[in-house]
Amino acid sequence: MRKKMMTLLWMAMWAAMPVLAQEHHDWEDATIVSRGKLPYHATLQLPSKEAECKEIVSLDGQWYFHWSKDPASRPADFYKSTFDVSSWPTIQVPGNWQLQGYGKPIYTNVKYPFKKDAPYVTGVPDSTYYSFDHRNPVGSYVTFFDVPQVSPYGSIEDASYILHFGGVKSAFYVWVNGQKVGYSQNSMSPSEFDITPYIIKGRNRLAVEVYRWSDGSYLEDIDMWRLSGIFRPVQLLVRPLVHIADYHLQAQPCDNWKDGDFVATVKVCNRGRNAARNIPVSVTIDGQLFTQNVKHIAAGDTLAVRFDGHLSGVRLWTPHTPNLYPVTLACDGEHFESHVGFKKVEIIGEVLKVNGQNVKLRGVNRHDHHPRTGRYCDPATYEQDIALMKQCNINLLRVAVYPSDPYLYELCDRYGIFVMDEANNESHDYGIGNHTLGDDPAWRAAHVDRAKSLVERDKNHPSVLIWSLGNEASAGLNPKAMREAILSIDTTRVIYYDSDRSLSDIYDDSYLTPENMRRVAQRVNNRPFMMREYGHAMGNSMGNLKDYWDIIYADSSICGAAVWDWVDQGLEAVGSSQSANPTYLYGGDFGDQPNNGTFCINGMVAPDRKPHPHYYEVQYVYQPIHFSMHEGRIEKKSMDPFVHVDDFDYILDTLQVGGERLINIKALLKHDTPWAKRGFVVAHEQFVEGQYAFPQSFGDISTNEFTSPLLSGSTSHGKVKAAKVKRTAHGVTILTRHGQVEIDSTGAITQITAHGKQWLIAPLEPHFWKPENDNQHAAKFAQRLAIWQSAAEERQLQAFHVSQHKDVAEVTATFTLPVAAKLILVYTIHSDGTIKVDADYQPQGNVSDKSLAEALKTMPKFGMRMRLPADFSQVSWYGRGPLENYPDRKLSQHVGRYAMPLSDYEVEYVNPQDNGNRCDVRSFTLSSVTTQRKLTILGCQPLCIRAWDYVEEELQAAHPNEMHRGDGVTVNIDLNIHGVGGVDSWGARTLPQYTVDGRKPHHYSFFIIGN
């Protein structure tokens, strides 16, 4: 009793203290992580039929709101019941205030957005920082809720009233009816407060004061938008005085892998004033009821009740078979629903095993992000994300770099995705593995609090495979204490940590090349190896993915890798939501400082969740069924120990074109699932028999089904008049039956005319440059290879020769190039107007200039380009497709016949960059809907072709809506092109086998024909 009186006295004294009256603030004191907050616990789910009930009251909606640029200017008395907020504007809760008109979003990767001086956040930063004039903004929230005269358990005195915040960033105080209730930080985990002593019957006032930054922000230095506010749901929980405070379900298979044991530990709390007696507590699993009677619980105490059980013939939980057993928890009339999955995780030697099987974790990292609501994701967004991941054959989700909303874990349980669950712990700006925060005892409570909040909430989810202590954070005694705290709660999973490998059960290294990954894995011989991040998916990226997985599958000690990351973190520009292609903003677009620009645009899907082309490459490389062909027979092999080849239906189709036979096989879902319908393609492969008969002469194309002569209506090359040669002051004109071809002294075809219509608006000429993508920009592609930008344009004519042979005219132009090479262009024009182009690149020996010699190692591409009138707005081709593909990212796109509008052929990235290539093209046709004209490019060997409705220079724009489009169609006709790269986006170069060597000769040919 004396202890309780002292507690009430302390609460009264603390409640009377204004927040800033203290010289030392809670939000700048690392030793204070909360005040008055209830212990963390597992998510409690009411039975679905009772979901709309009086026990859970949503407080989401419009709240009164006031924004202050710093603590000194905040309305300090706003929490008082007498303070009138009726004139304040309202704000949506949950949500981030920066996306509702208050302050600025800040995107920074590593740098703290305030003065770095832990634990303080109100020091004087660089004058360019947003925080220089906005020294820790404060949001003051007020809402009202009603408490009925009676509770579901009788009078209001017979119930406990718990205030639940799903997530508030960064730190906040809570008042109810003018009385201070508590304080909390650790923004990505829930906070709960018992407000029973403060509520009244009828109308109640809830006030919340949120600080944008706090000492907790030093442990939340995460590569994401720095947003703040009440960003997850707020609820009032009405509980009986004696209720279930927490529960822990553990279910593991027995050694025979057929039966299962489970343990349920239920914590019962008595919040009443008197002792409780004879309280019935029960657990029901798969219809089996287990009961106990708790004889006595003293007032204010919590008692743990344990149930042990055994099930025969259990169905194990795996991502492929996410078998769940329903569990009902009951205490004195109150019921909750949950589920368990029987799963065993262990490390044997160097191998990570689940249910006795060696697993390969086909992973991805994910941030909570929505383009309009920021850190708040609605249930539909979670459902869309998890369904898309399952469709992509992803079986591991790393919730980077903080716990997500509980609903995401429920979906992973039901749909079947392993989870690496990560503590909200990153202090990157102090250095990965720093001891500044890692060994300081003042920061121990904050570290441990983040570990406990993670595990206590999520411990019952069968999808959780790995606990992670954080990311790019500290090393030393504090993360060690985190590990110990986790093990004191749960020992059924493994622990992962990148910043102090001595604390990790799995060895981590990230963003290695495939070969370096292989070497590191071979060197590590005492535990499994994994790359928690790889394949940085920034812009047009994710090359060489299969190179990684060939090694991963070959080495049992490598348990997997996770792509960084899932979604482009673009924020939708105001006013663009009604557009078919909204404008998405990134770091710096809000005038935010510091910022890391486009570095947040690195997802497999766009902000609106439209998959990028590289999503489908991941889907292909991650597919659980691999196919091979031996002696004409297709063989199937499962790459996943939990997947059997007989789990799917298969369909086979063939296409015979030009001497080659394309054989396509697909594995289809046999049944509907929560994430896809029956018939969804889970795996696919293509085999090619024979060889395509690439045309080499005019005679070869007369029977080609894709072509017809450009400048006449005939398909018989031998029955038209001979082409005539007309020399001009600037070059030569070749006259054909119904038109002409003009070639100037630079070796460019400047115009093609047929039946009085001109076909070109810019010449067909050599071009060796390609715009950068994000990976190449970071690798200083333009600076290193600058000479190639104008290498073709600065060609010097050495010889120009025109000849005529029967029904063809031939123009040969020889040039020297500023890259120590010779270029020979040969144009052969048939009298029917068909054009054959030959381009021959010949290096001219050793180069003494070191910078030039370095640049010659990498030619961006070898090819030509031209521009057609804007009405050529339809494309069709026979080659790889239908989606964009490049030399190092083309395996998911099979050879076939495809057609689409040019607008769909292009790929619009949030940050404009090189896009739209198709590899291994045999034939490519551009068509005009208005004039019915068609122009076909036939390769004499496979081609790479890109086509855009803008000029190449427009790709330098910051956003797609700033590009000028529609004046013509740019067509790049290339022999080869530089790969997109796929190691990282801050300096790594494309792997050599996917580049074009400028020190080697290159030759290619193609025909231009049409109607």
N- and C-termini, Cα separation:
97 Å
**Main β-sheet description:** 12 strands, antiparallel
CATH hierarchy, class of the largest domain: Mainly Beta
* Total E-strand runs: 61
The average pLDDT score comes to: 94
The figure for the number of domains is: 5
Gross geometry? elongated
Indicate the low-confidence ranges by residue numbers. Answer: 1-22, 706-720
- Counting helices, strands and paired strands, the structural category is mainly beta
DSSP helix count? Answer: 14
Helix-strand blueprint:
Elements: H1 2-15, E1 34-35, E2 56-58, E3 61-68, E4 90-93, E5 106-108, H2 130-133, E6 138-147, E7 150-151, E8 154-155, E9 159-165, E10 168-169, E11 171-176, E12 179-184, E13 191-194, E14 202-211, E15 220-221, E16 224-226, E17 229-230, E18 234-240, E19 242-253, E20 260-270, E21 276-285, E22 288-297, E23 302-311, E24 325-331, E25 334-340, E26 345-348, E27 351-354, E28 357-358, E29 361-366, H3 379-391, E30 396-399, H4 406-415, E31 418-422, E32 426-427, H5 444-458, E33 464-468, H6 477-489, E34 494-496, E35 507-508, H7 514-523, E36 529-534, H8 545-554, E37 558-563, E38 571-572, E39 584-585, H9 613-621, E40 625-630, E41 633-638, E42 648-657, E43 660-669, E44 681-690, H10 698-701, E45 724-728, E46 731-735, E47 739-744, E48 749-754, E49 757-758, E50 762-766, H11 774-778, H12 781-784, E51 796-805, E52 808-817, E53 821-830, E54 835-843, H13 850-856, E55 861-868, E56 874-881, E57 894-901, H14 902-905, E58 918-927, E59 934-948, E60 969-977, E61 1002-1010
Parallel strand pairs: 15-32, 29-30, 29-37, 30-31, 31-33, 33-34, 35-36, 36-37
Antiparallel strand pairs: 1-12, 2-18, 3-4, 3-6, 5-16, 6-14, 7-8, 9-13, 9-18, 10-17, 11-12, 11-14, 19-20, 20-23, 21-22, 21-24, 24-25, 26-27, 27-28, 38-39, 40-41, 42-43, 43-44, 45-46, 46-47, 47-48, 48-49, 50-55, 51-52, 52-53, 53-54, 54-61, 55-60, 56-57, 56-58, 58-59, 59-60, 59-61
Helix pairs in contact: 3-4, 5-6, 7-8
